[in-house]
Specification:
This protein has 488 residues and is mainly alpha-helical. The protein is built from 17 helices and 5 strands. The mean pLDDT is 86.
């Protein structure tokens, strides 16, 4: 009996354990595995990321659309696809385009650079020495002979530049493609300006002044043609060209010859017109499309690097995937960059002296450096000195015009005016103003001529130093007056 009962109890316990095990197995089958939990969590996270990415993309797209609308309202093309850039894409249809003549002139300069470097002529080639400080000093006979030889071989360049300068507009053949844009015409335009300046040197040596106005006009119009291009580099080259014409060509020919008042009046008019034409707004406006192009390349699988060469390198697949997820933030930063550059465009179009006090060198660089994904700080660095350089050019042109007016006064009276106010209204409508202060340009009569100058960016009268009046050799102070000098 007892054994039977014991066996019954053991059988019952075994059954209970089997039922418990069966229940556990059932629960295990119902309970999801760790892998399934992780997969579900990953899917939820992915869906949440996709939804968040889509929301941010929508917001970024709206912000970018507003920024581009703001650019168009300011008359600025936000991308290279804008109709504004059609004029370069359809340049062949233009019939009154100075660039046809200019580029024909440039084609005569496309040869092995060694030929040019072998010349002993000043301003070009291996003889990079400039004129002596006193522009009245004659060229050495050997250098003069080389100058004649050099210019004779390039006579058609001067002629073609003159023909182009008579036309109302200039649009070079350029395919705007952001950092990939090729602009060889800038190099040849600068070479052509050297030839024009050197032609003025030769006329100074020969005592000829009858073509002074024509060469001055042609050189300044050549420089102006680049101010119409939407690129900071074009603005820099335009300033360099006009500096060559004024500092090297005009200064020497005025100091070595005696132009008639009629010729001087033409020169004065050309200088004052060029001073009014100095505007870097278009150069800065083009950087809006440059910024947009960088972001387009970024989202298209490229990324802008900060190498010295400024190369664009392909992004890795992982980075492209990551950029796709954060595309909304990329667009928001693109909108931010556009707005910052638009502020620079506005400043560049403002001629008020106080506008120059804006800190382009550090303030703009720091602000643009805060934009993510592309290195806009590098862009700001390239544009940093351009506004001040433009106003220095304006000051130089106005100063040169005032000096020319003083020469007309001297031709009529036999002496220099004591003050620039004496030139008004017979020789000047008004005394030209210093772009950096809004006050009249400064004037000084020397034993060997006259100087008219601006106080420059530091707004301190340095007496014409460092270029018009040379500091002492042991003077280490920094000066930045800018203007024009006539040696007579």
């Amino acid at each position: 009996m007892c054994d039977a009962a014991g066996n019954g109890e053991r059988g019952s316990g075994l059954s209970e354990r089997r039922m418990l095990l069966a229940d556990d197995a059932t629960r295990d089958r119902r309970r999801p595995s760790a892998k399934i939990v992780l997969i579900i969590a990953a899917l939820v996270t992915l869906v949440a990321a996709l939804v968040t990415s889509a929301v941010l993309d929508r917001r970024g797209s709206a912000d970018l659309a507003r920024a581009e609308a703001q650019a168009r309202a300011a008359g600025v093309a936000p991308t290279y696809k804008d109709k504004y850039y059609d004029q370069w894409r359809e340049v062949g249809r233009l019939t009154d385009n100075a660039a046809f003549y200019y580029e024909a002139a440039f084609s005569n300069l496309r040869y092995d650079g060694k030929i040019e470097e072998s010349t002993k002529a000043p301003l070009v080639g291996e003889s990079t020495q400039m004129a002596p400080e006193d522009a009245r000093t004659p060229l050495p006979p050997e250098m003069l002979a080389e100058t004649r030889k050099y210019l004779e071989a390039r006579r058609n360049v001067v002629e073609l530049i003159h023909m182009g300068s008579a036309l109302p507009r200039c649009v070079y053949s350029v395919r705007w493609d952001g950092l990939m844009t090729l602009v060889p015409h800038l190099t040849y335009a600068r070479r052509s300006a050297r030839i024009i300046a050197l032609q003025m040197w030769l006329y100074a040596e020969e005592g000829r002044s009858e073509d002074t106005a024509m060469l001055t006009e042609d050189g300044l119009i050549l420089g102006k043609s680049l101010l119409a291009e939407p690129a900071g580099i074009s603005g820099n080259v335009a300033i360099a060209i006009e500096t060559l014409i004024v500092d090297q060509g005009l200064s020497r020919v005025l100091s070595r010859t005696s132009p008639s008042n009629e010729e001087l009046a033409r020169v004065e008019k050309a200088l004052l017109q060029a001073a009014e034409d100095v505007s870097l707004r278009t150069a800065f406006a083009g950087e809006v499309a440059m910024v947009s192009d960088l972001y387009d390349r970024l989202l298209g699988g490229q990324v802008y690097t900060t190498t010295k060469e400024g190369r664009l390198v392909s992004a890795t697949p992982a980075r492209r995937a990551w950029l796709w997820f954060v595309r909304g933030d990329v667009k928001s930063n693109r909108a931010k960059a556009i707005r910052l550059v638009l502020e620079m465009v506005e400043k560049a179009g403002n001629r008020a002296p106080e506008a120059l006090k804006a800190d382009y060198r550090d303030g703009w660089k720091a602000r643009l450096a805060g934009v993510k994904y592309v290195d806009c700080g590098l862009l700001a660095e390239g544009l940093a000195k351009l506004p001040v350089a433009g106003e220095k050019m304006r000051a130089k042109l106005r100063a040169a015009a005032a000096c020319v007016a003083a020469m007309r006064f001297r031709n009529g009276t036999g002496s220099w005016p004591e003050r620039l106010e004496e030139l008004v209204p017979s020789y000047l409508d008004a005394v030209p103003l210093d772009p950096f202060t809004g006050n009249r340009l400064l004037y000084s009569v020397k034993d060997d001529g006259i100087i008219v100058y601006s106080v420059g960016e530091n707004c301190v009268d340095d007496g014409g130093k460092p270029n018009l009046v040379q500091p002492a050799k042991d003077d280490r102070k920094v000066y930045d007056d800018v203007g024009f000098r006539v040696w007579k």
